[in-house]
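Co-fold these.
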Amino acid sequence: MSGGITAYSVVEPSAWSRRVAAALVVLYALVSMVPLVWIVITGFKTPPDSIAYPPKLVFSPSLEGYVNLFTTRSRQTPEYIHSLPPAQSWYEELVRSRNMVIAGPSKYLPRYINSLVIGFGSTFLAILFGTAAAYAFSRFKVPLKDDLLFFILSTRMMPPIAVAIPIYLMYRELGLTDTKLGMILLYTAVNLSLAVWLLKGFIDEIPREYEEAAMIDGYTRLQAFWKVVLPQASTGIAATAIFCLIFAWNEYAFAVLLTSGEAQTTPPFIPFIIGEGGQDWPAVAAGSTLFLIPIVVFTVLLRKLLLRGITFGAVRR
Amino acid sequence: MHEAAASASVAERVAAATPETIVRRVRGLSDRAIAWVFVLPTMALLLAINIFPLIWTIRLSFTNYRVNRANAPLRWVGIDNYVSILTDPDIWSSMQVTARFVFWTIAIETILGFLLAVLIDRKFRGHGFWTTVILIPMMLSPAVVGNFWTFLYQPQIGLFNYAASFIAGIPPSSFQMIGDVSLAPWSIVIVDVWMWTPYVMLICLAGLRSIPGYIYEAAEVDRASAWRQFWSITLPLALPFIMLAVLFRGIENFKMFDMVNLLTNGGPGSTTELASITLKREAFEKWRTGYSSAFAIVLFVAIFGLANIYVKALNQVKQR
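Predicted complex below.
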């Protein structure tokens, strides 16, 4: 927000132009939120309501989508369902009212957990390696520094599908296909470019004098890094971590090509939530909603740092 | 206790006897060692997971290798793969689809994003809140977004057709965004614009906020009209930022895969078949590994080359 005070210190936009601007921006924001709101709403519809024509704005809310998301069900005859002992839970009853019984858990939860494990694992490694590399690039004379930094950035220009072929072959040799470890290493590598660039920007802003003062007081270089630089950079490190987490959380291309079961994350899974007679839209919507919640929360938390994160720190405010 | 004191005095004696230059050199050496240790893991991982695969891709691109027939004799075919890619009409058509997609998304996103940034820069009450709301779409997973837009685009049950029917006065079931040959390309453009206009807006906003206020004050003194101020101050000074947004979006959309794969998967026909979708088909459906590797290299060189030319232009604008 540099220049926030000087900008428009004299030339104030008129009240009228502000009001028009506000109206247009709010209009855009509301229209752009419609698809998202619609998905959240659909998650609380029953399957028939979700495909009603015209689209239903008023409906009685139901948790059927969420029940269908977390369970697999089998269709039974009404006679069979009547022969069963009374339902033990509201969700069993909900399912029975559609002539079905719960057959077991669905794969949504394991996929969500995979997303968490792979997301946090790769974020941890990217931050660990990235902070170290960023510190070295920021403070030391690393040979070919500019070339290395550009090379690190250019690894993001390759279409993921293009490197996926040899990674697929390589992982097959190493037995890493469809493993969480394989995906963690892959996402770490992809995230490192962002982590190094972003963290270098944050560390560059910490005055060198702080470490020099610490080293004059008898700290070694490593102690100064650990006790002076790291605490100073902690906000930047946290922000970078969230950006890495969001990337790993949202990634689809590698996930769909390199995983099939064991290590599959949520994005390739959600489209294949199939109900009876085609896509079960309330369940898909419920799955999407649960998947998007952390991202929306992070967006709100990160709003001031978003610009840096999405431009590799190339633009600062 | 005694030992510690003794060793301290030894250290002191050594320190006293050591010329200053050697002390400096030892320090410098340890810094260099730290630099190595700190940079090495990153470089090792990038070499293993980016560079090694890239070199492997280049190697494969000169062969007839097929992953699903790994036991077939590996034959070097020289530049045959490259020749057939550059003469393959399907590849050219997918490059054209990609170029049109990149052109229209960037044109619309830039204009819309910049206008939004100008409006938000008026700093009305609550602009921070609304900015955050606007930013949400770009943070979502493109795959999940592609998937839920297929729902919104359903001709009978989808919200999009229903909303469009109010505006255009046509029955909602009379057109299919994803299924229609002429509308399908626009269906992916609309989703991309919805998702990424906030991105351009954010960068433009940073550009606008970086313009020092005194320039406007001077213009005000000279009685320049608001229109004149916009064309002579706002636009030129924000231009490097706008160009940066175009660069980042251009690279991303040139290699776009996830959202389109789930929304249209290249169809109907090949009307939305972007380069990445073609690449996936060749590599993971037809299993023509060597051929698709060559295509991957062509794509990478194209992105890299275009980006470099563009960055040169960007630097010239910045220097002005």
